[in-house]
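The data are quoted verbatim for reference:
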Amino acid sequence: MHFASDNWGGALPEVAQALVDHCDGFAAAYGNSELDRSLVHRFQEIFEHDLEMFLVGTGTAANSLAMSAAGRPGGVVFSHANAHMFEEECGAIEKIGGGLRITPVEGALGKIAPEKFAAALGRLPEGFVHVGQPSAVTLTQATEWGTLYQLDQIAEIASIARKRNIAVHMDGARFANALVALDVTPADMTWRQGVDMLSFGASKNGCWCAEALLVFNPRYAEHMIYAQKQAGHLFSKSRFISAQLETYLSEDNWRKWARQANRLAAELTAILMRSGAARIAWTPEANIVFAIMKIKEAERLQAAGAFFYRRASLETEIAIAGDEGLYRFVTSPMNDATDLQDFAEILS
């Protein structure tokens, strides 16, 4: 009954086998193997666009490198107030970005409100040296709240960013979950709406340690390899990241696994609603479910072997009583029907 995080799950057998298959022999290092090069072409096919690929081991590394590429002296990055980049990356953006600072922007259910983003940009007038200069805006898809930006919402924020000539980045730690939920193409959810860079996540969706920064706008790729090396994420045996991602993208595995996680989240939502012991805070749109329940009930479930987190940091207009808490449940392709059945039994 592991619903604490999709980071908790192991690697799926297909991914583990891919690593074993590439253990023998020799291959060029530092992103220059045949497998590395073929993966670039595979990403270009999937996204229907020329792009540069930079393999990294963590989503934080991908996000930080993207922001460093967009950075300017006195640079300001805009993110949602509950974005992982702002709340849970230990100042990595500021450090690797060479002094960038993040300005949080409010918006309902984890999504930046366009009018608030425009207002935040307006507080940094061009040429006024004392306040610094905007460098980038980052959107998390799916959000930390388990919600999704619709395509027109991505395009609207990108349009506002274009007026100030700043980068548009997407944190896609759960990119596949968002993609299958919206039932759109990778191109439609990214560069066609104005996204310049994507942190393409796979570790939460069945891989062992595999993330990629995909750069659609060549403006931001020019010096990336040097930043990647300085950040300690230019892997010598990069083929082992490529092996995971090659399998991940083969036979539509990535979308299949994401659909499974999303389906399990929908079933978990139904179990919680039927129980009478919890109420759903808002409609889940991917693989994250937020529920409100009595603190004592949550503690009882956790003592019985269910793993999930209490989230006290999210600001919501939903009324939560003093003896209640807001709890997050995350499903992954490593979960199965048994997890849900066992949880339903202890919940009843």
About this structure: The first helix runs from residue 13 to 21. The first strand starts at residue 52 and ends at 56.
